[in-house]
Amino acid sequence: MKRIAIAFLVFLLCVSVASASSSETAIEAVSSGSNGDIGILSLGYTITQGDSNWHYKPITTSVTRFNIDLNWGDKTDSLKLYVYDPSNNLVGYYYDSADGKINGRINIDIVDYSGIEQGTWSICVYGYSVSGTEDYSI
Ligand SMILES: [Ca+2]
Ligand SMILES: [Ca+2]
């Protein structure tokens, strides 16, 4: 029962920001050309319509950008990505088109020229429009 309550809370947290606007800060997401250093644990995950899966990325060094590469490889399904800084502020949310291509992948760099906030960044993958079960890596 407790697990269900937590899962529901996470769902609410994810959905509640759906209507929020993108951040007013200097942080921006830019299309990334890199295929290399993904940074986040890159394993096979699955998601269904309306699901929220959370992933965490620790930033422990002084950097001005890091890459997020969410890849589900099926442009007929649509996943959505929410990015929160270590203070749990929503930095932005992104659709497949965020990197300029509808290709079943969201490959972006989070950029802050004054320095990426160190700590644990939280990334929520949301099943925005998914038929059946979709596999993805991040
Ligand atoms: Ca894309
Ligand atoms: Ca699919």
UniProtKB/TrEMBL annotation:
UniProt xrefs under Gene3D superfamilies:
2.60.120.380
Task: Write the protein's name.
Answer: Peptidase C-terminal archaeal/bacterial domain-containing protein
The source's superkingdom equals Archaea
